[in-house]
């Protein structure tokens, strides 16, 4: 059974979605590939205490690695990409090509980009930490401005 809640963040409202009490979605307002609202289930903030606490600590610059339990729905390839995203350290970036290499398929950078764009749990699974081969910012479901702000935040907080 799915449930959802909406919380405030420095990056705008975040919709958290749980499947049987386990976080399976974190969506920003106006996010590309955001599922329809009716798929989020009933409004209920009960299953989101740990996620909310960890997000608050992250936004305060006190948490660098999330440990909240996740249930990620996607293809086997997408889940492998999302596992690689979760390994990118706080304040660092990787290119799509580097992720493809880590998956053992150096020619899959485009497929990695597509899977990255379908990440259902933004911020916690840090798809914002993926950049283009030239080092420039490329697509982000939450918008390039948010991506730039998240990266700047992590780089600044990492220097404290």
Largest sheet: 4 strands, mixed
Rg, Cα atoms, Å: 15 Å
Number of helices: 5
Shape: globular
Distance between the termini: 41 Å
- Overall mean confidence score, pLDDT: 91
Number of strands: 6
Class from secondary-structure proportions = alpha/beta
Question: Which percent range describes the beta-strand content?
Answer: 15-25%
Low-confidence stretches: none
Order of helices and strands: EEEEHHEHHEH
Report on the architecture of this protein:
This protein is of the alpha/beta class and 160 residues long. It is 33% helix and 16% strand. It has five helices and six strands; from the N terminus they run ββββααβααβα. The chain has helices at 49-59, 76-86, 96-102, 109-117, 144-158; strands spanning 2-7, 14-19, 22-28, 42-43, 94-95, 130-131. It has a four-stranded mixed sheet with strand order 3-2-1-4, with no helix packed on it. A two-stranded parallel sheet has the order 5-6. Strand 2 and strand 3 form a beta hairpin. The protein is globular and about 40 Å long. The mean pLDDT is 91.
Helix/strand layout:
Blueprint: E1 2-7, E2 14-19, E3 22-28, E4 42-43, H1 49-59, H2 76-86, E5 94-95, H3 96-102, H4 109-117, E6 130-131, H5 144-158
Parallel strand pairs: 1-4, 5-6
Antiparallel strand pairs: 1-2, 2-3
Helix pairs in contact: 3-4
Task: Give a short synopsis of this structure.
The protein has 5 helices and 6 strands.
């Amino acid at each position: 059974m799915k449930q959802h809640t909406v919380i405030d963040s420095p990056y705008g409202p975040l919709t958290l979605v749980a499947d049987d009490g386990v976080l399976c979605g974190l969506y920003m307002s106006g996010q590309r590939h955001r599922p329809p609202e009716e798929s989020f289930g009933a409004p209920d903030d009960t299953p989101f205490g740990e996620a909310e606490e960890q997000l608050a600590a992250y936004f305060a610059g006190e948490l660098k690695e999330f440990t909240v339990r996740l249930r990620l729905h996607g293809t086997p390839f997408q889940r492998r990409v999302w596992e690689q995203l979760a390994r990118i350290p706080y304040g660092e970036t990787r290119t799509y090509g580097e992720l493809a290499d880590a998956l053992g398929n150096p020619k899959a950078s485009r497929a990695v980009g597509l899977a990255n764009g379908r990440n259902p749990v933004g911020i916690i699974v840090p798809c914002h930490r993926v950049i283009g081969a030239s080092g420039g910012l490329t697509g982000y479901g939450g918008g390039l401005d948010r991506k730039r702000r998240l990266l700047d935040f992590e780089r600044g907080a990492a220097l404290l």
